[in-house]
Write a structure and sequence with these properties.
The protein has 431 residues and is mainly alpha-helical. The chain is 62% helix and 3% strand. A three-stranded mixed sheet has the order 1-3-2, with no helix packed on it. The chain is globular.
């Protein structure tokens, strides 16, 4: 109804230089506006959702329903005093927020937000354009490379601040990046194997061969789980927010930053949340594909946005639910658990693709079902082992130690019969 007629002349935009330039400029400005808006309102979403989970009201005074709160926060940060610490490495201190922010803005460049659409132009022709900036044939390599650059901003900010807390935050961030980028890179191999391409657009389209059930999360749920956890660690979100760790390091690598420099770190974190949600949805959740998107391509960005919104809600929910894990356990999880499991996920997909090519898609589907069942059984056993109710050991013994003062004094005041009875088992009815 709204597309070109049978007699219309349709031109591929990539074959026309003028269309390519105009499309690149317009799409870049549009993506920049979308990311800035997403940053502003993701902060509001987090504050309101956290407030709801904690039985609070949340920000609701600036504008109707608090919708102008991000504007108020931005104005406040603009007028904050900008302080540079004494004896800081000033040039690097000033450049670090830029190094952290620019890669966050570039990641989305290779992710298509919808199928191609035809739009009319003033010369009477219709042009088929992508709903995205560019679909590189090595898009996944771009994602891995650009996400790795952002950590340099964190490390340099910690080093240049002349502050021990900032330095520790930078060191933690670099160690965390090395530990989790390996798992993330290996988990990204799974969709590459299944689609047979490094292009993000090809990976998204390959998941639509069977609508919804063709999403790679159903073919390799282990790889999807590892990628989502690694992406959470990549953006330093709870429970992996040790580079900031307010209770231990004040604010970590950005302790000495204020004003707009702090705002740039803040913006980079929330834009990175949106970006990793886009990557996760594109790699394992079918990207922009869902029902009716093939017939109405303009629904593609809307569907993609809904998936990103749900992943953002999941991140905030995790922050409200899980405590920050200890740093040695963070390293153990990355090297001893996630990396071996990621290798298993890749081996499983490689085996499934080999069997599917040799026997047929039926065998491939059976193997996918087996993978899901095995993962569910393993997850259930692991949760039962870690989350079960501990039964008190009735044969345990109590030994009271007397200290010179405080709690020890109270222990010393206990009748000698109770103190001397060290070997007596616990008796719940004993008074």
């Amino acid at each position: 109804m709204f597309g070109p007629g049978e007699s219309a002349i349709i031109v591929e935009c990539s074959a026309n230089t003028t269309c390519t330039v105009v499309h690149a400029i317009f799409t870049s400005l549009l993506l920049f506006f979308i990311l800035l808006t997403a940053f502003a309102y993701t902060t509001l979403l987090e504050r309101r959702f956290l407030a709801a989970l904690q039985a609070r009201i949340g920000p609701n005074r600036a504008g109707p329903w608090g919708l102008l709160q991000p504007v108020a926060d931005g104005i406040k940060l603009i007028f904050k005093e900008d302080v540079t610490p004494f004896e800081a490495e000033k040039v690097i201190f000033w450049l670090a927020p830029v190094i952290r922010t620019v890669p966050a803005l570039l990641i989305v460049a290779v992710i298509p937000l919808g199928p191609k659409i035809s739009i009319p132009w003033f010369d009477g022709k219709w042009y088929r354009v992508e709903q995205g900036l560019v679909d590189l044939n090595v898009g996944v390599l771009w994602l891995v490379a650009i996400t790795s650059i952002g950590v340099y901003g964190v490390v340099l900010a910690g080093w240049a601040s002349n502050n021990k807390y900032s330095m520790l935050g930078g060191l933690r961030s670099s160690a965390q990046m090395i530990s989790y980028e390996l798992s993330m890179g290996v988990a990204l191999v799974v969709p590459i194997l299944l689609a047979g391409s490094l292009s993000v657009g090809d990976i998204i389209d390959a998941q639509n061969e069977v609508p919804i059930l063709g999403w790679y999360i159903f073919q390799n749920p282990l790889g999807a789980a590892i990628l989502l956890i690694a992406l959470l660690a990549e953006v330093n979100r709870a429970p992996f927010d040790l580079p900031e760790a307010e209770q231990e390091l004040t604010a970590g690598y950005h302790t000495e930053y204020s004003g707009m420099k702090f705002a740039m770190f803040y913006m980079a974190e929330y834009i990175s949340m949106v970006n990793v949600s886009l990557v996760g949805a594109a790699m394992y959740l079918g990207g922009y594909h869902f029902l009716f998107v093939d017939k109405l391509p303009l629904l593609g960005p809307l569907v993609f946005g809904i998936k990103v919104f749900l992943l953002l809600m999941g991140m905030i929910w995790v922050r409200a639910t899980l405590p920050r894990i200890r740093y040695d356990r963070l390293m153990s999880l990355g090297w001893k658990v996630m990396l071996p499991l990621a290798l298993v996920a890749v081996a499983w997909s490689a085996f499934a693709v080999l069997i599917g090519d040799a026997i047929g898609t039926g065998a491939y589907a059976i193997l996918s079902i087996i993978a899901i069942v095995v993962l569910l059984i393993g997850a259930g056993r692991w949760l039962n082992g870690t989350g079960g109710t501990e039964t008190p050991d009735r044969s345990a013994h109590v030994q009271l130690v007397s200290l010179p003062s405080g709690a020890g004094a109270a222990a010393a005041a206990i009748p000698s019969r109770a103190v001397s009875d060290e070997a007596a088992p616990l008796d719940p009815n004993r008074k």
